[in-house]
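The pair is quoted verbatim below.
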Amino acid sequence: MDFFSPAQMVGYLAFVLGVTAFAQRIDWKLKSLIAVECLAYTVHFALLGNPTASFSAGLSAVRMFASLRTRSPYLAGFFLAANIILGVWLATSWTALFSIAAGCSGTVAAFFLTGIRLRGLLFFATLCWLGNNIASGSIGGTLLESIIAVVNGATMWRLWREGRTR
């Protein structure tokens, strides 16, 4: 495995963006940085030859940007349907279920939740992406999701301690 291939380098960029995102206590900053991280992930997974993960990450970027402007349940339904239908269509193995589940969880979190609940469901999505990244051979992505789980957990703890559950 080439630790410095173009695919892995873009994965390292996603790593930096993701850790920065999940350290945010303000929802709109979290969502904005996740959207940019997802753009890097889109390129990363395309270079790794994982079309389902690449599509899901790209859709997640658009979804996060959209969720900054609206909380429309219809738009959320569109993103859920697109993630499931196109994710299954692009799937090349059962491991595609990881990125599909991550995309669906992220959609529900982005459009319907705030505060600790938002971060809690994104924690589940993180675990799904971790499974995908291990299966894909993504070094930066595996490190990213591992660290995001810790950073997100710590941020949820700080929010809970401050009494900011919403």
About this structure: Helices lie at 6-22, 27-48, 51-67, 73-90, 96-112, 115-136, 139-161. Residues 139-161 form the longest helix (23 residues).
